[in-house]
Write a structure and sequence with these properties.
This protein is α/β, with parallel strands linked by helices. 44% of the residues lie in helices and 19% in strands. It has three domains: 14-163, GTPase HflX, N-terminal domain (Rossmann fold, 3-Layer(aba) Sandwich); 215-380, 3-Layer(aba) Sandwich (Rossmann fold); 384-434. Strand 6 and strand 7 form a beta hairpin. It binds guanosine-5'-triphosphate (GTP) and magnesium ion.
Length: 439
């Protein structure tokens, strides 16, 4: 059966050779080179690139000129020819000069053009983001991050960018964009920043409108592919994109969730994090991540079936710190426990409990009721008892208290109603402001 609307991309898939080096990475707590390279291969698949081979090296420090040693460069050159690779992807960040030297050493064609592209993990991630950004804000953010990444790589002696054809690391700004000189790029960056400020101002207005409604906000955070969107769908019924792909979600979605005690809350799903997320992207996505920074509660979703889950959690904590959300109240959610059997599942449940968290399966509806209960409890715990003196002519304030708070007692004197209610700190502040601070 043919599916309407789908058609094959005619460009042949690019063939990638992956290169990683062990640089005391285990000391960082990452699950070793193999795990990191497996993730890099998954990133390549997400970008639509075929992985044809990999090569690794153990080194104390990277080579200044070519990152890997001379012998390794020669081996890569041979592998590229043998495997007919057209792109070499390094797992670690390459300095612009290292990138140029590697391309030169691996091979130049008759016209002096490099025969292969050499890129790093950051560039691959930027490319995936460029492919997947749909909203105006997302597109602007990605283009800004790409140009900032490319600026130090645009030199008069390196016309590389104008020569490479469309493909990995080259979508987004478009080739013509990349042909412009540094000054034009700087102008474009300034323009993008300005437009982003405008777009995020509009977003802020929307958020402020939402803040007017004193619903508490909950944000899903976690490593990419942890199951945040699946959990979003499970908790709210929202029809969000779920994919076994990295960075399925880029643009934030907000949906309402109704809880027995805390009432209505807003749940937001946003971009996932990853090991070595390019700094430029984190910066560019800061305004999108505002939802996270201002949330009343974060749900840190972890794929409990992934062996690297401890390092995934560390990455998430680092990114949260970088965007200024480290101090937000956080509930740990160990997801995908359906994939664990017997003792492993028990261990995950215990681990979640130790952290005051919950073990769930968003796919199989395991532990979801308990998770709802915990969210309700944590949000409800934020309700405080407060008293307000509401003048009779301010009926709308009284109505607001009834609608959004839990009114415990009402007493009237000659001029006003004295209300005792359970309210969120946010609602208390808003009511006090509405009453002009006299209550
Ligand atoms: N077995 C199992 N698979 C799950 C579970 N939750 C999510 N998945 C699968 O994991 C993959 C990723 O799920 P998503 O919900 O898209 O993950 P995400 O965290 O939103 O990922 P990004 O948006 O890419 O950051 C999908 O193939 C889901 O079907 C679960 O509880 N159990
Ligand atoms: Mg998602």
């Amino acid at each position: 059966m043919s599916r309407g609307g789908t058609h094959e991309v005619t460009r042949p898939r690019e063939r990638a050779l992956l290169v990683g080096i062990e640089l005391g990475r285990t000391k960082e707590g990452y699950e070793g080179l193999e795990g990191s390279l497996a993730e890099l291969a998954q990133l390549c698949r997400t970008a639509g690139v075929t992985v044809v081979g990999q090569s690794s090296q153990r080194r104390a420090v990277p080579d200044v000129r070519t990152f890997v040693g001379k012998g390794k460069v020669e081996e890569i050159r041979q592998l590229v020819a043998e495997l007919e690779a057209d792109v070499v992807v390094f797992d670690d960040p390459l300095a612009p000069a290292q990138q140029r030297n590697l391309e030169k050493d691996i091979g130049l064609g008759p016209g002096g053009d490099p025969t292969v592209k050499v890129i790093d993990r950051s560039q691959l991630i930027l490319d995936i983001f460029a492919q997947r950004a749909h909203s105006l804000e997302g597109k602007l953010q990605v283009e800004l991050a790409q140009l900032e990444y490319l600026t130090p790589r645009l030199t008069r002696h390196w016309t590389h960018l104008s020569r490479i054809k469309a493909g990995v690391a080259m979508r987004g700004p478009g080739e013509t964009q990349l042909e412009v000189d540094r000054r034009r790029v700087r102008e474009r960056i300034a323009m993008l920043r300005k437009r982003l400020t405008e777009v995020s101002r509009t977003r802020r207005l929307h958020r402020d409108e939402r803040a007017e409604v004193p619903f508490p906000t909950v944000a899903l955070v976690g490593y990419t592919n942890a199951g945040k969107s699946t959990l979003m769908r499970r908790l709210t019924g929202a029809d969000v994109l779920i994919d076994d792909m990295l960075f399925a979600t880029l643009d934030p979605t907000v949906r309402r969730i109704d809880l027995p005690r805390a009432g209505t809350a807003l749940l937001s799903d946003t971009v996932g994090f990853i090991h070595k997320l390019p700094h430029q992207l984190v910066q560019a996505f800061k305004s999108t991540l505002e939802e996270v920074r201002t949330a009343d509660l974060l749900l840190h979703v972890v794929d409990a079936s992934n062996d690297a889950r401890a390092s995934h959690m560390a990455v998430v904590r680092d990114v949260l710190a970088e965007i200024g959300a480290a101090e937000r109240p956080t509930l740990l959610v160990l997801n995908k426990i359906d994939r664990l059997e017997g003792a492993a599942r028990e261990a995950a449940i215990l681990e979640a409990q130790r952290d005051d968290g919950v073990a769930v399966s968003a796919a199989d509806d395991l532990g979801i009721a308990a998770l709802r209960g915990r969210i309700d409890e944590l949000l409800d715990g934020r309700m405080t008892r407060a008293e307000f003196r509401v003048p009779f002519e301010r009926g709308e304030v009284l109505a607001r208290l009834h609608r959004h708070g839990s009114v415990l007692e009402c007493r009237q004197d000659d001029h006003a109603t004295h209300v005792t209610a359970l309210v969120t700190p946010k609602l208390a502040g808003q009511i006090r402001k509405a009453l002009g601070g006299v209550c």
